[in-house]
């Protein structure tokens, strides 16, 4: 249920914040 | 490697040196949690990223976007914020030195405090020293767009109400650094993007640095 979520939990799922992708070959 | 590409006449910012000087590698190692060899390995990554669209020795926003989203088109609020925080000199491009400084915060050994500060700055869109409700709303709308999800305005406001009930301890309608810190310590999963396990042993992720190394067993 989205309403049970804290906004920051949602925000932290952004691809733009996942720098691990920089290391993909 | 990309730095050995043929000269590009429209490329005005092309650095004269094709390789990072030893002194520079040592300095960056001293300023960070990376060994000299690890800085060299990160230079391999930097070269790859910085020549993907414009081969000028700097990472442009479109190049960061291409690496993260596999497309250089479109707008993404989070990408903009990450780019701005990497771009210490605020000149619109990321130099190698800035790349090392920022990745240093993502090191598994970096203190939690540094990671908490970095995310606070990231989310403080207007850089007022507070994360405001409007900013959180803007970021939720951005993540919904990014993931192609839809929420009613009513649900969105409920999420914001819950968020501020959870985080804004003094109930002044904005989140200060202390409130953020207290909340994140209780919910460390919010920092999961802030640690890149690859950085623990970056020289095995980019072993090609061995061919370009200027220092043996540093």
Structural account:
- The complex is a heterodimer of chains A (25) and B (218).
- Chain A has one helix at residues 7-11.
- Chain A is mainly α.
- Chain A is rod-shaped, with a radius of gyration of 12 Å.
- In chain B, 51% of the residues lie in helices and 2% in strands.
- Chain B is built from 11 helices and 2 strands.
- In chain B, helix 4 packs across helix 6, helix 6 (112-123) crosses helix 9 and helix 7 packs across helix 8.
- Chain B is globular, with a radius of gyration of 20 Å.
- Chain B starts with 21 loop residues before the first helix and ends in a 6-residue tail after the last helix.
- Chain A binds chain B through residues 2-23, and chain B through 45, 49, 67-69, 76-79, 81-82, 103, 106, 122-123, 136, 139-140, 142-144, 146-147, 151, 155, 158-160, 162-163, 166-167, 183, 187, 189-190, 192-193, 196, 198, 205.
Q: Features of this protein?
A:
heterodimer; A: 25 residues; mainly alpha; 1 helix; B: 218 residues; 11 helices; 51% helix; globular; disordered N terminus
Spans of at least 5 consecutive residues with low confidence of chain B: 1-12
Major sheet characteristics of chain A: none
- Quick one: how many beta strands of chain A? 0
Count of DSSP H/I helices of chain B: 11
Percent in strands of chain A: under 5%
Taking pLDDT < 50 over at least 5 consecutive residues as the criterion, the unreliable ranges of chain A are: none
- Percent of residues in helices of chain A: 10-25%
Oligomer: heterodimer
Average pLDDT level of chain B: 89
- Tell me the strand order in the biggest sheet of chain B: 1-2
Helix segment count of chain A? 1
Percent strand of chain B equals under 5%
- How would the global form of chain B be characterised? globular
